[in-house]
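Notebook entry, structure prediction.
Reason for the run: the old model in the group folder had no record of what sequence produced it. Starting over properly, with the input documented here first.
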Amino acid sequence: MLKHSLLIASLLLSLSSCSTFKTTHNFKKPLNLMFINNDINTIPLQIKRNEKLCDDDKENNQNCPIKLYIDDFKAGDFYINNATTYYLKPNEYVLTVKNCKEKCNTFHMKIIIDSKLPTTSLILSINQEGKPFIINKNL
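New structure, fully documented this time:
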């Protein structure tokens, strides 16, 4: 009897682990955010993705988020018109944006965060070929 119960339980667990649940996302906020705690001695870095969609995407069905990395740490997935503020210690950082459709397109940019510039504002976008890039609004 115990073997039979264990067999049924393991069968149910294995079947449930194989099932996929489609998650819904309303695309209003970026996902997987890091560096968002306003700690002492940090400087704000404002990031916004503009309204440009990838080729086949629609506003309510986006499969091409721009993934932002700060010094190789994934800092967020941005859909159109998403915005957030990161808080970073004064230092030089490498920002990387990627989007992956058929192949991964990548863009890198170095930025210096320091107290001379109280807030840095960046825009994430894509070009006509669907490649991501970063625009520094402070320049």
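Summary: Residues 2-18 form the longest helix (17 residues).
The old model has been moved to the deprecated folder.
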